[in-house]
Amino acid sequence: MASDRSQSNRNSLLELDRMGQSIWYDCIDRYLIRNGGLRYLIDYEAVKGITTNPSILHKAITISRDYDAELAALAGWECVPAEAVYKQLLLQDISQAADLLEPVYGETQGRDGYVWLEVTPHLTHDITGTIKEARRLWRSIGRQNLMIKVPATNAGIAAIETLTCDGINVNATLLFSLDKYNQVVDAYLRGLEYRMANNRAVDSVASVASIFLLRLILPWITSSTSGWLVRKIEPSKIGLLSCGAGWQLLTPNLFMMIIRPISRVGAGRLLNVRELRRNA
Predict the structure, then answer these.
(1) Quick one: which of 136, 151, 90 has its CA closest to 115?
(2) Burial track 78-91 (b if 16+ CB lie within 10 A, e otherwise)
(3) Could you give the 3-state DSSP secondary structure of residue 181?
(4) How confident is the model at residue 245 (pLDDT cuts 50, 70, 90)?
(5) For residue 278, with 0-12 CB atoms within 10 Å meaning exposed, 13-18 middle and 19 or more buried, which class applies?
(6) 59, 87, 149, 180: which is the annotated catalytic residue?
(7) What's the pLDDT band for 72 if we cut at 50, 70, 90?
(8) Is 149 noted as a catalytic residue in this protein?
């Protein structure tokens, strides 16, 4: 039975892949990376990327024995803060995961194959600190298929513009409204505009907007007509309904972004439509 269930799950993932959906695995640890688990997920279960956050990485380090030897070695260093030890372990795992996903990045021409790494939550409202931390992570990892997660606070949105101008891939997180989504899109495009105005390439600068769909469509669900419709749908289908409704809300904004002229800053051309759709 377990084998049949595993085969069914795998077939479902492969079917999603054939439909053009990208599967991102929301977990990472050293055992998964070094013992073939991540390679298996990439090769046989259509996983196209790895997402992380501080709690996932903290849990991996604290409950796994795979870090013990290195932790013991690092403990011998004098006056090394715990945060520095954490970052040293973190950078190794992210770098190795990025290397495993690099073939996916190459085969999809940068559409997939990313590893996500988040700036420290303590910098949520610190523009300068967020930019500095993101640049440090980008340089330390040194992989083009790294994507830095930046929360879409007012400070984060300002940082996204600068980081995009730097050529750093950014995943804008914690988006709960169309207004915030529009602000992120504008920040991303402004960053690309500045790059183009300075004759710098934009075709490899990727971006993702991570939207919490339930928050986005909640007003629609709670309206009288839509609410009645939702109550008639079985719970297992609510997620699909959320995705469909969210896409309908976002599509007009996406097409406005696609036709926005970049030439106003003197670049003399529009961004390739396919690239904009991919990077949005």
Answers:
(1) 90
(2) eeeeeeebbbebbe
(3) helix
(4) low
(5) middle
(6) 149
(7) confident
(8) yes
